[in-house]
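Database export, one record per block. Field names are fixed; values are copied verbatim from the stored entry.
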Amino acid sequence: MDNILLCGVVWSVIILMVVIGAQALSGIMNNGLSWGFGARDTAKDHTVFQARALRTVQNHIESMMLFVPLALAAYAMGLEGGLITKGVWLYLIGRAVYPLTYWTGLPYARTLIWTVSIVGIGMILVQILTAG
């Protein structure tokens, strides 16, 4: 895939699949394999990691709700290079590293990395707004 914007969308989905997998696995590890394959009507209280994994999934979905529409709009407008490329890379790097900092409990690093991804989204937005 040659277009950085479409690659960014695909990789954001891959990151989402990884964080959903970690969240699901943490639930199975906490509650057992039979719970994981059952109806999951009852569950133990979340472990710290399990709660963080769930919040990581939610946070990534929220970031995708900003990134994906902007990436598709920029793609439809034929925008590329400059702020677009840097913005996509900042977003992807931030989103790839964010779970690791959150799961391990690095509060300042987590916020810094989250900010990196938001700056990436902002760069794409600026490019879209100034393209006309």
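Remark 1: The chain has five helices and no strands.
Remark 2: The CA atoms of residues 1 and 35 lie 40 Å apart.
End of record.
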